[in-house]
Amino acid sequence: MRLCTIVSEQGEQAAVVTAEGIVPVEAINAYLGKAWATDLHDMIEEGLSPRIADDADVTPVKLDPASVRFGPLYRHPRKILGIGLNYRDHAADLDAPYPTEPASFMKCDNTIIGPGDVIELPPESERVTAEAEIGVVIGKTCRCITEQEAASYIAGYCLIIDMTAEDILQRNPRFLTRSKNFDTFFSFGPELITTDEVADVLKVKVGTWKNGTLHRENVVSNMAFPPFYLVAFHSHVATLYPGDIISTGTPGAVVIEDGDLAQCRIDGLGELSNPVRRRR
To answer: Cα torsion for 29, 31, 33, 39, to the nearest 10°?
Structure first.
């Protein structure tokens, strides 16, 4: 099942992605007399029932994806956890020591934007990078689970472009939080792809693109700490809640400038793109 959030005059609302088009959850409720949650974060909290996909198939409202404006999947996760230097090749790019444990950091919800929204380069930084990543969305509350149990706690996967004010970070590694938390520094969407749609996440290829040109790509199996391990590891640090996001690291960060188009492409999952503008 694939889910998204679309933007209309009524605001942002959850929708189901079908082969025939996009079906707003509100349309399903109106046509079938159902009471599905119409916010994607609420849907995750309630548990993503596959029955809603069946309801979407029989609902006559089918919107052309080309005519729809996609928003971020949701606005207010309780946690966004980022993972630094999770591909060995990326650590080598930065001439950085290879971490022996997950190098995690936090992002705030002020950073969130959706597909097509503008990434704003802040005047405080002269060197911002964009990093394509596969995101793990938590589906059930979990605490102190094992790596073998992790799959059952994941709602699905999504595409992410994470930004870093790299020049600020290079001045002092203690400035990581600041370098990661400027407004517009976290894009995710356009779809949440449930785990049943991804046969083997370790075989998925993630690519950082800019202006239609591939910068760097890698396969999830080349992560030092793969998705299931990351979920289990962080569940021993803090309770993970439905809708929490783990952004699992990038195969390569690309410097972005005013006028660029930052892109994440993941085989079988789709594409996420955002234009870049310098904020003055």
So the answer is: 0
Cα angle 148, 104, 42 (rounded to 5 degrees) comes to: 70
Residue 31 Ramachandran class (φ > 0 left, ψ -120 to 50 alpha, else beta):
alpha
Sequence-separated (6 or more) residues with CB below 8 Å from residue 204: 134, 157, 198, 219, 220, 266, 267, 268, 269
CA 18 to chain centre: 20
| 3-state DSSP assignment of residue 227 | helix
Domain 80-278 sits in CATH at 3.90.850.10
Residue written as token pair 């449930």 = 194
- The residue with tokens 């600041």 is 178
8 Å CB contact between 248 and 134: yes
Q: Which residues contact 182 (CB under 8 A, 6 or more apart)?
A: 111, 120, 122, 124, 125, 163, 165
Tell me the domain boundaries of the chain.
2-70, 80-278
Whether the per-residue pLDDT at 141 is higher than 80: the answer is: yes
Report, as an integer, the average pLDDT of 190-219. 97
pTM reported for the whole predicted model: 0.95
Nearest to 91 by CA among 81, 80, 102: 102
pLDDT of residue 88: 76
For strands 270-278 and 119-121, give the pairing. Answer: parallel
Q: Can you name the residues that pair with 137 across neighbouring β-strands?
A: 156, 245
Instruction: Please say whether the beta carbons of 266 and 220 come within 8 A.
Output: no
